[in-house]
Amino acid sequence: MLKHPNNPLLQTPTRPLPRHVAIIGAGSIGPDIGYYLKSALPALQLTLIDIDQGAIDAALKRFADYAKKALAKGKMSEAQAAAVQQGVQGSTDYDALKDCDWVIEAATENLALKRRIFAQVEARVGLDAVITSNTSSLPASRIFAELKNPERATVTHFFAPAWRNPAVEVIDWPHAAPELVAWLRWVFCTTGKVPLLTSDAPCFMLDRIFDNWCNEAALLLDCATAAQIDTVAAEFVHAGPFFVLNLARGNPIITETNTLQADEEGEHYRPAPIFPSVDQWLTVAPGQRVDVSAETTRAVRDRLLGVLLSQSVDILDRGIGTPADLELGCCTALGFKRGPLTLLRDMPEAHAQRILKRLALERPGMPMPKRALADYLNFERHVLVDDVQGVKVITLRRPEALNALHDEMTDEILAVIRRFEDDPAVSGFVITGYGTRAFCAGADIGRFPDLLGDKAAAAQYARDCSRLLVHLDAMHKPVVAALNGMALGGGFELAMRCHALVAMEQAWMQLPEVSLGILPGIGAMVVPYRRWPQAAATFHAMLRRCDKLKAKQALALGVVDALASSPAELIATAVARVQALASGHARIQHGPVTLPAFDSMAPQSAHGLALSPTTLGLIERAVQEAAQAPSLSAALEIGYLAFGEAACTAAAREGIAAFGEKRAPDFVRVG
Ligand code: NAD
To answer: Could you identify the atom of ligand 1 that is nearest to the CA of residue 248?
Structure first.
């Protein structure tokens, strides 16, 4: 096992989830960190400490306001909204820290102040209490320099709004105990965050991008207005730098953090002198634009993009973070539409070289690539790969989409399998999902809307989407699906082509396609009946009514081989299954199979949605014809063709339109 596996849940934690957390600093971000923790762990005791009673009162009110909003939007039940506010207390007295097992400092960004705070904390908490700081920029080696027991301390850097922004940087600095870093990553991943392992450079990974992006924007004010710069930046980000600075009241923090970078790494990082003199920038809201001449657009675009590329290659050359984390963090934490390395990949190399050359001329000192640009692009973006006892564990990681499949992710899984399937040191593969909620929530809707009405193209799309699944069918080395959470649609179709399935006790499977006016065309109408004929009636109900299949029921039916009660146990079980199957695994039944008849039912899903009789008819016909097909490949072909037919129905148009418009589809109207 690696010192730190890429998937944080592969390690067994050395301590349980926290019981009593204290947050020091009840200003902008401290209470939001607390609210995230209380939402994820309702039984947690939470203490908010501040020197200012007014800040504590405002924080407690914020908790009540958030809970009220969540209740009104149906995101929390009354019981959850009450639980999130219970066990929360504020204090101006550090003695309230006494029996905390985790203290998170989120006080004003100032080295001397933070050191004083940590001395007070260490004097009060037990030796086994974890101590972390939410500093935006100050390296752990500096803020914890005076601690007696620095091995239990590190930086956990959240991003606003911390109650829902999934990214958290976890700093791996030389004095931090490996168990501490492993535990923090495990806690975050278990509670729905995406921990990004980062080294102890000033500003860590993502703020090096964000701060320099904002600073560059301010330095460009001699050639464009704030509104013009935000307009140009909208090509890359959901909200321009000045809009975000206004929102976060970020001017002082950029001055602070860029001064630190300038003092440590060179004058090119010096903050724009304008920051201290401006309170609010005159800019436009996201989605609005102002006129910008072509020449100004080019000057601003080149510099913003230049700084983005420069910072990205520097982060990778210095090993501050991994390329996949940099991409994911820029999109989830900072609101970039595409990660910087995706931008680099998708532009002609000569274009990138020109931009970097211009930056080197206009902003001497800014880091430049130390390798060929193509070298920075060679990594997996959507899967993590770990080695556990000679088994490659492939983790689907698209937390923003519940690990949904898309073409790039499918190709990455296939590429990893191809890379190792002839390696004698690798006995097989496990495929699992990132986090605890989802194995895989299906397939992105992707190109599908463009295929509506084109039978041949839609059938070909299903064939193309099956390239990984068909490869799995022919493999000699075993592949085991470890269902860490829900497996929906295409995600379940992937799992059912793995050679064995194991699942968390609370995992479940569902085929929701019929509720979208389409059908699962890449195996679900074929494979279950050949693989688990004893469960045929259950699959009839899954396909026709969107019935859920819970893990326990799947175990009883023989669809799943074993259940686990923790993520580490799940992976250990999956790895053991791979090893047990090393001498061979059963193939999916090749010849025809007999089916139980479909029961008569009202065209209605398990959750009460009126379904399309047309789609239901297509599903029933495809299931029956596929069962009689002479070979597995002929049966799969029937599924692809049925998918093509479904794409030409009014029900599919209605279902996909309703999905896009976030409304319930009206299949009664379209039939
Ligand atoms: P803030 O100024 O809004 O709040 C800081 C709070 O700390 C204030 O309520 C203040 O009274 C309190 N405080 C000051 N001295 C204290 C002491 N000795 N003991 C207890 N409380 C004390 O700052 P903020 O924006 O919430 O940022 C807090 C920390 O988090 C900073 O290190 C900042 O860099 C970091 N951070 C902030 C954000 C953000 O979006 N606001 C994002 C990432 C990191």
So the answer is: 40
Q: C-alpha dihedral over 418, 458, 640, 414, to 10 degrees?
A: 10
Helix (H) or strand (E) holding 528: helix 527-531
Q: From ligand 1's centre to the CA of 477, what distance in Å?
A: 53
Q: Which of 23, 24, 29, 61 to mutate to test the pocket of ligand 1 (most atoms within 8 A of CB)?
A: 29
DSSP secondary structure letters along 562-622: EEESSHHHHHHHHHHHHHHTTT--PPP--S----PPPPP--SB-TTSPBPPHHHHHHHHHH
CA 50 to centroid of ligand 1, rounded, Å:
9
| Structural domains of the chain in order of their starting residue, each with its CATH number | 8-198 (3.40.50.720), 206-377 (1.10.1040.50), 383-670 (3.90.226.10)
Q: Give nearest CA residue, ligand 1 atom 9.
A: 27
Total-model pTM:
0.95
Does residue 265 carry a catalytic annotation?
no
Q: pLDDT tens for residues 43-68?
A: 999 999 999 999 999 999 999 999 99
- Write down the residue that tokens 């501490």 correspond to: 180
Q: Quick check: 1 pLDDT over 50?
A: no
pLDDT for 633 equals 96
Residue nearest to atom 4 of ligand 1 (CA): 27
The alpha carbon of 589 is separated from its chain's Cα centroid by a whole number of angstroms, namely 36
The pLDDT confidence band at residue 178, using thresholds 50, 70 and 90, is very high
CB-defined site of ligand 1, < 6 Å: 24-30, 49-52, 55, 106-109, 113, 117, 134-136, 158-160, 248, 253
- Measured in Å, residue 372 CA sits from the centre of ligand 1 at 41
71-97: b (≥16 Cβ within 10 Å) or e: beeeebeeeebebbbeebebbeebebb
Q: What tokens were used for 403?
A: 């690990």
Calpha distance 106→112 (Å, rounded): 14
Looking at residue 2, its pLDDT comes to: 45
Q: What does the pLDDT look like over 330-371, one tens digit per residue? A: 999 999 999 999 999 999 999 999 999 999 999 999 999 999
Which among 493, 569, 645, 654 is annotated as catalytic?
493
Is 105 annotated as catalytic?
A: no
